[in-house]
Each structure stands twice: as structure tokens, then as C-alpha cells.
Amino acid sequence: MRTAHEEVERYLDTVCSQVKAKEMHVEIRRELGCHIEDLVADKVEEGESEDQATVWALVQMGDPVQLGKGLHQVHKPRIPWGILAAMVLFSAISLLAMGSVEASSEGAMGEIGFMRNQGVYIVMGMVLMLGMYFIDVRKLKKYSWLLYALTLFGVFAKIGWDTEINGTGRWFVMGPFSIDFVACSPYFFVAALAGIFSKQKLMGKQSIFFNDILKILALLVPSFLFIQVRSYPELVIYILSSLAVYGWVSRRRWTTLFISGLYLSGGLIYLWNSPYLRERLSNRFSYTHDPNGNGYIYVKIKEALSSAGWSGHGFGAHQGNLPYVYADMLPIYLIRCFGWGGGLLLAALVVWFLIKLIAALHAVRNPYGKTLIVALGGMLFLRLLYGLSLWSGSMLVVSLPFPFLSYGSHVLIEYAAVGLLLGIYRRKDMLPEVQLPAAQ
To answer: How far apart are CA 396 and CA 200, in angstroms?
Structure first.
């Protein structure tokens, strides 16, 4: 004859057998076990024996199979349809934009096949997104230092190896495809930092102070590499994203503000001692003094924005002498083609996408998953915000393609980042709030 304890264990085994999210079994057993113990204790106080009280408690709990099926529905994978729908719309807009660029291009530019190539990049990106969707992010956390080291090595390699495209040695070439590794590296760095900052101890039993210093050094080192390769847009994006991750994990407001102050003071000193950067800023704020030279691009931006109206000049509109309309200037060209009406629709889509990311952040319980959403979501937010800010006509123009829309292989890492975010949301009800070891 089974004891009361064995009956309870058998009941819990039956419940958990219906729940496929094995990571939740410990938490389910603990919560149900505590509830059963409370019911048994109440009945024992009324004078029942422990065995009789246990039988009564299990009857009150209900059929274990049905209870387990109900818990499975609670803890089954979730799909963030809002984010997925936004990605489909971004893909469609990107193809439409590349079709318009292709229709308006002349000579050698018209033979590149922007729409066809972008379609290939999008399909590859979706494959990556699907693959990242099924990754267990807890296992990714274990390899945070490895990811950090490999990214450092990759940027170092680009400093020493000069595979130049458009005059810059920052590309990895793989057959017919090339990828700007330096531009993609901030994604890898902040994803690695999300895991590094989330670890209580980085190097065994070292002091808390030593671990804090190590985390701050891990945050600072990539900045010097971006300065070395003069990748200033990526530097700014990285600084803002990494500080957000550090502040989110550490909850140390004053330390975060102190590091921000170091960055700001160092940046101002560097700017003051860099004639190139001072000239870039001067050209932006005094572009009317040299409209046919250094201020030319800002004059053309103003012309494109002021002449677009609400409906624009239509699909395949003349590029208006805007450079790089397929990449950095794509937001401006979209206004030229489809007007401010089209621009408002794109802005609404961006806002919708960001709202869904924020909703995912609040829905996810796992601390490391939340940190990754802050890291990668923050990176995408800053890039999207910069792209839309070009519509003001007052933003400094830098080489920073619009996420998901602009032409090029950068969409691969962006789709992969979204896939990882989708995967985090997918498992939001399948992981306990308290971090447990990943299943082997």
C-alpha cells in the first residue's frame, strides 16, 4: 500500500507528464506540493489521519491529467504575432523601396539588381531568424565571454586585414556575399555583455569589486576598437546600448552616470582634437555657406523633403541627386517617392514594432531574457530612431543604414537579432522566473 507521500508524488508525476515545458516541472511540483500540504494540514487539524487527509486533498485538486493539460496550455510556446507581422511589412516595404531605387537608377547602377539581391538577403535573413527562434538563450549565456572574445578578434582582424569595399577595410567576403563585420559587431558585443553583466561572479571567487571592474573594462574596450577603425556611428550606437544594458542589470544609477560622464568628457576631448570631426559638424550647421561642396548633401535633403508633399513623386521617382539612396539616404528617398503620407505609415509601423518589443520585455519573466531584449531591442531602436530623424532635415548624415529596409547584408544580423527576441518570447511561459540550469 502506498504511503501518503508516494500518493502525492504519483499525482505530481502524472500532472508533470502532461506539461512539455520540462523546465517548469520543478516550479509546478513546488507550487502544487505546497497547496496539497496546506489542504492536508487543514484536514489533519479537523481530526483526520494523514493518509485520509491526503486522499481528500488529491480529490480536491481534481483529475491530474486534466490539471496537467491545463498547465500545459499555460506553459506552451508563444508566438509574438505583432512583431512577426511587423517584420513581414518591413520586408515588403524593403522590396518596394529597392524596386523604386532600381527603376530610378541609370547606367551601371540600374544593372545591380537591387530588388533581386535584397530579396535574397531577406530570404537568408528569414532563415536565420527561424534558426535563432529555436535557440535556448540560457545556453547562449554560458558562451558570453567566448562571443565577446570572438567579436574582439574579428574587429582586430579587420584592423590588420584590408579587404576593402567602398574604400574601407571592414568587410568579410564569402564568395558572392560580403558583410560589414564592424557595422554588425555592436550586436555581438551587447549580446555578449548581456550575459557577462548578468553573471554574479566572472572569475571564480574574486571579490565583488574585482568583478565590477572587470565588467566595466568589458564595456569600455570595444569603444577603443571602434575609435581605432574610425567607426564613429557604430561607436555611438554601441555606447548608448551598452550603457543601457549595464544600467538595467546593475541597477547602479550613479555608476552608470559616472561611466556616461567618462564617455562624454572623453568624446568632447577627442572631438576637439580631431579636425576631421570638427569639420563634419561645421559642415552640417553651416551647409548654406558651401552649397555646392561640403554642404551639398544637406541642400539636396532639404529639397527632397520640401518638394515631396503628402503623396510624393511616385514609384521610381528621380533620385534628385541624393547619394546612396539604396542605403543611408533611403528614408529621404522614400519621402521623395511616397510623400509624407507614406512616411507617416512607415513611422506608425516603427512605433508599432517598438511597442511590441516593450510589451515583450514586460511579458518575459526570465532575467537574462529581459536583458537580451534590452540589449538587442535597444540597438534596433536607436538605429530606427536615427533613420526617422533624418526626416527632420537637421540630423548629421552618417553611414548608418535603416534597419530591415536599406540594401545590403546588414539585414542578416537584424533578422537574426529579431529571431533571438522572438525565441525569448516563445519561451516566456516555459522558463521559471528564477534561473535554472538549461536541460542538457
So the answer is: 40
How does 130-140 read in b/e, with b if 16+ C-beta sit within 10 Å?
eebbebebbeb
Which of 434, 418, 365 lies closest to 130 in space, CA to CA? 418
If you average pLDDT over every residue of the chain, what do you get? 84
CA distance 331 to 161: 32
CA atoms in the 13 A half-sphere facing the CB of 393: 13
Whether residue 436 has pLDDT greater than 50:
no
Whole-model pTM: value is: 0.85
Contacts of 75 (CB under 8 A, 6+ apart): 19, 20, 21, 24, 429, 430
Give the C-alpha separation, 126 to 91, whole Å: 10
Q: How many CB atoms lie within 10 A of CB 392?
A: 9
Phi-psi label, residue 397: left if phi above 0, alpha if psi -120 to 50, beta otherwise: beta
Nearest to 148 by CA among 105, 110, 99, 193: 193
- How far is Cα 339 from Cα 66, in angstroms, rounded to an integer? 56
**Span between the terminal Cα atoms of the chain, in Å:** 36
Contact at 8 Å (CB) between 74 and 429?
yes
Q: For the residues of 324-364, what is the DSSP string, one character each?
A: TTTTTTHHHHHHHHHHHHHHHHHHHHHHHHHHHHHHHHHH-
pLDDT of residue 160: 63
In the structure, what pLDDT confidence band is assigned to residue 207 with cuts at 50, 70 and 90? low
For residue 62, which of 118, 129, 14 has the smallest C-alpha distance? 14
Distance of CA 98 to the CA centre of its chain: 24
What is Dmax (Cα atoms) for the chain? 96
**Phi, psi for 254 (deg, rounded to 5):** -70, -35
C-beta separation of 97 from 329 below 8 A: no
Segments making up each domain of the chain, as ranges? 4-74, 81-426
In angstroms, rounded to a whole number, what is the distance separating the alpha carbons of residues 244 and 330?
28
Per-residue cell: 392: 527632420
Q: Is the pLDDT at 44 greater than 70, yes or no?
A: yes
User: DSSP characters for 58-85?
Assistant: HHHH--HHHHHHHHHHHTS----HHHHH
